[in-house]
Each structure stands twice: as C-alpha cells, then as structure tokens.
Amino acid sequence: MKTELTKKSFTLSIVAVLGPGRELGASNKLLWHISEDLKHFKALTMGHTIIMGRKTYESLGKPLPGRNNVVVSRSGRDLADVLAGLTDSGEVFIIGGAEIYRQTIDLVDKLYITHVQAPLPEGGADVFFPPIDPGEWKETERTDHPRGVTFPFPFSFVTYQRIGKQ
Ligand SMILES: NC(=O)c1ccc[n+]([C@@H]2O[C@H](COP(=O)([O-])OP(=O)(O)OC[C@H]3O[C@@H](n4cnc5c(N)ncnc54)[C@H](OP(=O)(O)O)[C@@H]3O)[C@@H](O)[C@H]2O)c1
C-alpha cells in the first residue's frame, strides 16, 4: 500500500493476539478467549480510534464502546484514505484482521502483541500475522503470564518498537 505517513502527528500501533505460529483466527473468529488479554486490549484502546477490516467488524458484531470505530471495506472506506486522513494527536490502533495487518505492518510505529503458547483449537487457523522481522522490531516491554485465571496456558504481553524510532 502506498501511503505517506512520515510527518504524522500520532503514533500508529497494531494490537494482535498470536499463537505460536503467528495464528490469528479461524472461520472469522478468534482462537482463544483470555480474559486478561481482553482487559489488556481494552486498557490500550479505550478512548482511541481503532481501525479494523470489515470481516473483523462482522466478527465483533457491534462497535466497541468508548472508542472511535473505523471499519474499512473495498465498498466503503478505503484503508489508505483513512490513514491519510487521520488527525489524531495520540495513539491510533489497527486491530485486525490478517488482511489489514498485512497492509499496515510496514507503516506502524509499535506492535502490541500477545504471544500465546497454547494448542490450537481443532481445525487450526486460517489467518496468520505477518512475520515480525527482528531486524526491524525491538522488544521494549514484556509481561509473562504462566497461565490466566481461567486460561490454562502461558501467554505474554510484548511491546515492540520499530528500530530507529524511539
Ligand atoms: N488474533 C487477533 O488479534 C485478531 C484480531 C482481529 C481479527 N482476528 C481474526 O482475523 C480474521 C479476520 O481477518 P481477515 O484477514 O479475514 O479479514 P479483515 O482483515 O478483518 O477484513 C478484510 C476486509 O477488509 C476490507 N479491506 C481489506 N483491505 C482493504 C483496503 N485496502 N481498503 C479498504 N478495505 C479493505 C475488505 O472488506 P470488503 O470485503 O467489505 O471489501 C476485506 O474483505 C478473523 O478470524 C478474526 O477473528 C484476529
């Protein structure tokens, strides 16, 4: 995608939950429900603009409260136009799904990734996050959870900054 975002006044960030092989979802649903992660997502995004693909919006079923929900569709709002038209002064979040992550990972400043070390549900995943190139991204924060209150597998909240952009 050709979008010039070099002089922007806001931080553009991706938020995503990935399995051990960068799995994102299956049959237009998330793979796991981790209550700690939902709280983490809410704390990050509350009060901010969130940008999502039409399929992710359909999967959510309704706008997320307390946030400026922007849904992109090839028969609606164009992703490049939305990004070019943003006038925020804070942080703007790309919340998925796979198609939208793929088109924005080279544009964003930060990644908030929940890495989940859990078996995949039966049938596996049908959408994946792009590779996180260690030459481009530096881990700046990490919180490891050996398990959740109800989720029995390890997961970690990891923040990555684009190298050369502190
Ligand atoms: N694990 C996570 O953190 C996470 C987060 C979000 C979603 N997900 C999962 O990801 C899956 C959905 O991802 P997905 O890749 O199938 O779909 P998606 O990225 O949510 O949405 C794709 C749609 O976005 C629109 N679109 C794509 N590029 C566009 C552009 N340049 N301009 C305007 N519109 C554009 C198109 O809508 P039209 O077809 O209407 O033209 C396209 O069909 C689900 O399984 C969901 O649960 C996981």
Comma- or semicolon-separated keywords:
166 residues, alpha/beta, Dihydrofolate Reductase, subunit A, 7-stranded mixed beta sheet, 3-stranded antiparallel beta sheet, globular, binds NADP nicotinamide-adenine-dinucleotide phosphate
What this model shows, in words?
The relative contact order is 0.26. The two termini are 24 Å apart. This protein is of the alpha/beta class and 166 residues long. The chain has one domain (11-162): Dihydrofolate Reductase, subunit A (3-Layer(aba) Sandwich). The protein has a 7-stranded mixed sheet. Strands 3-2-8 form a 3-stranded antiparallel sheet, with no helix packed on it. The mean pLDDT is 94. The protein has helices at residues 35-45, 54-60, 79-84, 98-104; strands at residues 11-18, 23-26, 29-30, 49-53, 68-72, 91-94, 110-116, 127-128, 137-145, 155-162. It is built from 4 helices and 10 strands. The structure holds NADP nicotinamide-adenine-dinucleotide phosphate. Residues 16-17, 24-25, 28-30, 52-56, 59, 72-75, 78-79, 95-100, 103, 127 line the site of NADP nicotinamide-adenine-dinucleotide phosphate (NAP).
